[in-house]
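Supplementary Methods, section 5.1.

A reviewer requested that the exact input to the structure prediction be made available. We therefore reproduce it here, unchanged from the version used in the analyses.
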Amino acid sequence: MKLSKFTEESLINFNLKGTSKNEIINELVDLAAKSKLVRERDELHQAVIEREKLVTTGVGYGVAFPHAKTKAVKGILIAFGRSSTGVDFEAMDKKLVHLFFLIAAPEDAIGAHLNVMARLSYIMKSEKVREKLMQTQSPKELLEVIDSVD
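The structure derived from this sequence is encoded token-by-token as follows.
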């Protein structure tokens, strides 16, 4: 599965400014809202916040996958953000998070949504990939990295 088909260069930000979980989610939702797949920005934001209340999406290793299934979107999309300083995202390993993948999916995209999450989780297990994503400077390069993992 090529994850690049779920994102585009305008949904990538290598310079997140937020210093808190809520600020980062806001920035990521603003990024996602640039996509024509997002019908309603505030509804997407609320869905991501509600999901985050259940259990943190900071999975460890400096990575978080905030996500939501909502009628606010009409297709699966991924927005990527990076924080060079790192943010306390209440990650499972208690470490700061630097790499954020916001995944938004329509309510009826259950299987596809889980496949995207599983693929991202698999890719992010590689320390080498995480290091590359911390160094990457262009959206094109980022898309190549996430698609290059077998």
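Residues 110-124 form the longest helix (15 residues). These observations are discussed further in the main text.
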